[in-house]
Design a protein that fits this description.
A hairpin with a 2-residue loop joins strand 11 and strand 12. It is built from twelve helices and 18 strands. Helix content is 27%, strand content 22%. Strands 1-8-5-10-4-3-2 form a seven-stranded antiparallel sheet.
Length: 422
């Protein structure tokens, strides 16, 4: 089945004749043609996904989706045709049968549509000999905003009993009505990638020395190993899918796609993480909800730990590009903090680290000394130098000035706590 999956993901429409033995084909056809088979009337087999689909019917009045019959309760028949785990890393998420009758006016095909957004595999099984081609188009719809005003026909496949057709979930297609036969029956199978397969398929952009998918799966495993809830693990798996302040690449913009894979709560956590301002710890501690604050902190810590072996052994979050500055801050719930300078621009002003006197307010209000006097300084600055390490108490307010050179200033910052052993 891997061969079929690879061909579909590469854009091929895969046609397999006699997908099941002849006696199984006959059994399915007999059962679905039986007068007792529970068909349900349906005005349409699709929904209006895009404005262009409505315009399509207006511009071509003879082409529209004709009334049909449907059935979504096909467990017994499905078991004869295909296994729910037919494709590795995918799940069978929907099975539906469609019955079309001849229409009083000739209709070449219904409105072009996809079987949803995102990624996955669709299987069409033709139950009986009929006419009314399935028409495939060149265009794909993988995002709700995708817009194709005039889809162009790519291929026609005539219904043939026992034939299965596999194609990409987002590929536009449309069904025709029979004109020479009394009935046209097909069964539609929708396979969706599980969350791990999905991440492996689409998160192939570089992330340090690896692919983004490697990092995301690593974060998931760390959270799972630490006993985090399923929602937190899933949010960690997608924690940078929309891009972050550090990792700018937006793999996806549609939140609906992610919600359909990991659910609302996990998607909301992932989206919140992507929106965090730097430094992330400060942004997390400013969140009012203690549960969300704790969940995001777990993801943040797993994100940092997972990257320790990448980027020269340093954490990606702390590599600062040109023109980057922090406002005055401290690090709550830590005791000792520090910074190590890895690379410092040789030309231009690289920006200092500035520490504020904890008694500054007293000095400003009670003493009439110039700020330049050594014994009553308000702030103290340290020049960055390659290899220099600066240690300071985490409660000490400090900031980093903007790097005004044209080169990278690279530093590694860290916070630590005391681990008490009983």
């Amino acid at each position: 089945m891997r061969d079929i999956l690879e061909r579909v993901n590469a854009g091929e429409i895969v046609v397999i004749d006699d997908f099941v033995p002849a006696h199984v084909q006959d059994q399915i056809e007999h059962q679905m043609n039986d007068p007792s088979f529970p068909w349900t009337a349906s005005a349409s087999s699709i929904g209006w996904f895009n404005p262009w689909q409505k315009d399509y019917t207006k511009n071509t009045p003879s082409v529209y989706d004709t009334p049909q019959m449907c059935n979504g309760d096909l467990q017994d028949i499905t078991s004869l045709l295909i296994s729910p785990d037919y494709f590795e890393g995918h799940e069978l998420v929907r099975t539906k049968a469609n019955l079309k009758y001849p229409y009083e006016h000739f209709v070449d095909h219904s409105v072009p549509h996809s079987d949803g957004f995102g990624f996955g595999v669709v299987g069409l099984y033709y139950v009986n000999e009929s006419d009314g081609d399935t028409v495939f188009f060149n265009e794909k719809v993988q995002h709700p905003d995708d817009d194709y005003v005039t889809p162009t026909i790519r291929q026609r496949i005539a219904p043939k009993k026992g034939t299965m057709v596999f194609f990409h979930k987002g590929l536009l297609h449309a069904a025709g009505n029979p004109s020479k036969y009394a009935r046209r029956i097909v069964i539609n199978f929708n396979f969706a990638p599980n969350k791990f397969t999905f991440v492996n398929q689409i998160c192939d952009s570089p992330h340090g020395t690896r692919k983004l998918s490697d990092h995301l799966l690593g974060v998931y495993k760390l959270l799972e190993g630490d006993g985090a809830s399923q929602e937190v693990c899933d949010a960690g798996l997608f924690h940078s899918i929309y891009g972050t302040e550090i990792y700018k690449h937006k793999t996806l913009t549609s939140r609906d796609i992610v919600r359909s894979i990991i659910g609302d709560e996990a998607e909301n956590l992932a989206h919140m993480f992507c929106e965090l301002k730097l430094p992330r710890e400060r942004s997390i501690y400013e969140i009012g909800d203690p549960k969300i604050r704790s969940q995001l902190l777990d993801i943040h810590e797993a994100n940092e730990i997972e990257q320790e072996d990448d980027h020269m052994g340093l954490n990606y979050e702390w590599f600062f590009p040109t023109i980057f500055a922090w406002e005055m801050l401290d690090f709550p719930q830590s005791m000792l903090s520090g910074v190590v300078y890895i690379k410092v621009p040789k030309i231009g002003y690289p920006g200092n680290i500035v520490f504020e006197n904890p008694n500054k307010n007293i000095l400003d209000n009670c003493w009439d000394f110039a700020a330049t006097e050594q014994q009553t300084y308000r702030n103290v600055k340290y020049d960055p130098e390659p290899g220099k390490i600066i240690l300071f108490p985490s409660w000490c307010m400090h900031q980093v000035e903007s790097n005004d050179s044209n080169e990278w200033r690279i530093s590694l910052s860290f916070n630590s706590q005391i681990d008490y052993n009983n």
